[in-house]
Amino acid sequence: MSTTAKYRDVSLGDPETDIPCACCDQPLLSTSDYCPTCETPTTLSSTVAARGGRQDFISVLGASNAGKTVYLGLLLDILSKGSDAFRGSATSAFSIDLQEQVVTALERKMFPEKTPTEADAWKWLHCQISMAKKKSTEHIDLISPDFAGEAIAMEINQSGMYPAIGHVVQKSTGLMILCDSLRVRDEGSAEDLFGMKLASYIAGQHGLTTDSAARKDAGPSIAIVFTKCDGCPEAIEDPARFAANNTPRMFEYCRRTFTNHNFFAASVAGSSGTLADSNGRQTRMPFHIQPQGVLEPLRWIVGQG
What we know:
Elements: E1 7-9, E2 14-17, H1 42-51, E3 55-62, H2 68-80, E4 86-90, H3 97-107, E5 124-132, E6 137-145, H4 149-157, H5 163-171, E7 172-180, H6 181-187, H7 189-205, E8 221-227, H8 233-237, H9 239-246, H10 248-257, E9 261-265, E10 267-276, E11 282-292, H11 296-304
């Protein structure tokens, strides 16, 4: 009997099929809901194996409260309503969970709850991107997990604490580094240093040890996205200049390390505010939803491939 684990995949019509983990490539046990190595959902790995074809990982990283959950959920919602020129659709009901969580919260004039640090509680986005060309339509599968900001911070400080993050970053052909534009403007150095640590972690996972000009390998495409720009118009006016002025360390590191990198600004709420309860606890809430710049980083990354 083969020592390779078997997974029962009804969708393929095959009673027993070898299913590698979509994240770390380890064989999955048929009785497991999650990969025992990195805790990637078996449902995702099964869908990826059944579809085949080009599978592109795109990581969305950032500090806690940078807006990763809202960004990813709304990104899929915008893609699902996009034009034929650039459209996305979830590959399974499993992939709609994040979109549903975000859209439902925003409709209630709330932002979704923080992502738990437990890896088995993370939601994964898996959608097919369709791009109209002159004579044909190109299709690629996009996979992106909603990592918790606290987990990202722990992983970059001690690599291996969250194996899924390391494996996904290594597999990613494109990555987005989300930075809270308000904190960047008002707190400066802390956000700049964290962004540089993230960029350094990405470079390490991809083995980029020399300056970009001296390498033949271009490495992954990096989009630095300043979020919550409804309250920071200067980031929208010129994201690259905003980065150079407010995150000079990260700006210079990316310039030297990544051949393909670009700066973007995005916002979900047309306007938002902070409410305080009787105990002084503050909660940020959107007054109305007016997405801006959400799709552009993804279109740029996909266009680099």
